[in-house]
Design brief:
Layout (H helix, E strand, L loop, with lengths): L3 E4 L2 E4 L4 E7 L8 E7 L6 E6 L6 E3 L7 E6 L4 E6 L8 E8 L4 E3 L3 E6 L1
Parallel strand pairs: 2-11
Antiparallel strand pairs: 1-3, 3-8, 4-5, 4-9, 5-6, 7-8, 9-10, 9-11
Length: 116
């Protein structure tokens, strides 16, 4: 069982920045592929970014490429999402997900609201 707890969400003006954190339980965090997703009201869940177990490979959706950066600290069992140049369309609940050998685990999410 893996537990994930997101933090760092909030209200920010357009053009601002936020850094989300996702803290994971478990002793094998360094073996997980970690992903961030988001879901806006009335919309389907959307992939945002992913990072390999080592941090050596990262992928981003076209909508956030160049503005968001995913990173991880395996010593702290934490993955981060640095969000810059935020836009009102980035408003959503952001969730992290851990892909393990036995399945995928999800956090509860953190709300990000970007005002225009």
């Amino acid at each position: 069982q893996v537990q994930l707890v997101e933090s760092g969400g909030g209200l920010v003006q357009a053009g601002g920045s936020l850094r989300l954190s996702c803290a994971a339980s478990g002793r094998t965090f360094s073996s997980y592929v970690m992903r961030w997703f988001r879901q806006a009201p009335g919309k389907e869940r959307e992939f945002v970014a992913s990072i390999s177990w080592s941090g050596g490979s990262t992928y981003y959706s076209d909508s956030v490429k160049g503005r968001f950066t995913i990173s991880r600290d395996n010593a702290k069992n934490t993955v981060y999402l640095q969000m810059n140049s935020l836009k009102p369309e980035d408003t959503a609940v952001y969730c992290c997900a851990a892909q393990t050998k036995v399945g995928t685990y999800w956090g509860q999410g953190t709300q990000v609201t970007v005002s225009s």
